[in-house]
Design goal:
The chain is 44% helix and 21% strand. The protein is α/β, with parallel strands linked by helices. The longest helix is centred in the N-terminal third of the chain and has 18 residues, at 32-49.
Length: 206
């Protein structure tokens, strides 16, 4: 199973607040039971922190104490992190720069296409944001762009509610840690994941 989320924004108004970097993170579980154990650990962490059972861990809205507790709780479970990081100032394609959706979809496809066979027959899970038509367009785009009938990169793609899915929250926290490191704000969270052996590949897209 692969849980996917992003950090930064896919816009190109770099002089008007758009982020310099855009990160897409893939949290890959090769074992369903390990995914379940990780999910339970996150739920137990909510109890430890004395927050609601519906509390959503989001990197940009979570304080330092909660971030530290979160990564300590999950770092030793067996999952792989693959990510793509784009420095948007070197993206020149008018098509990618003109529409956020085009750029977002393209980054997802590039990350999957260049997984070097490490993502195969996967169940992909995305955070369910945006209109249904936009989500359908991503599904069609990935199926065609990856020649998925033959490459079989994924066999199931669904959009889930991040408020209810703790492993999408893990993907959010992971993407945020990578974004924070690349922007120079705080490199400690990515270092925790790297030291634990969770990071398989971070591809700096060029």
């Amino acid at each position: 199973m692969v849980f996917i989320d992003d950090s930064g924004d896919p816009g190109f108004k770099l002089n008007k607040g758009s982020s310099k970097f855009f990160v897409v993170a893939f949290v890959v579980f090769d074992d369903y039971l390990e995914a379940e154990k990780t999910s339970v650990a996150i739920k137990e962490l909510r109890r430890k922190l004395q927050v609601s059972d519906f509390y959503e861990f989001k990197f940009n809205k979570t304080n330092r104490k909660f971030r530290n507790e979160f990564f300590a709780a999950v770092k030793n479970f067996k999952f792989r992190i693959r990510a793509i990081v784009s420095d948007k100032k070197i993206i020149y394609s008018p098509r990618l720069r003109s529409e956020k959706e085009n750029f977002y979809n393209y980054m997802i496809m590039q990350a999957l296409k260049n997984s070097r066979g490490n993502i195969r027959n996967a169940k992909l899970r995305f955070d369910k944001h945006g209109e249904k038509a936009i989500r359908h367009k991503l599904r069609v785009y990935l199926s065609g762009g990856l020649d998925n009938k033959n490459s079989r990169v994924f066999h199931d793609l669904k959009f889930v509610d991040s408020k209810q899915n703790t492993l999408i929250q893990l993907a959010d926290m992971t993407a945020g840690s990578i974004f924070s490191s690349y922007t120079g704000k705080d490199k400690s969270y990515l270092r925790i994941l790297q030291d634990a052996g969770r990071v398989e590949d971070i591809w700096e897209f060029k």
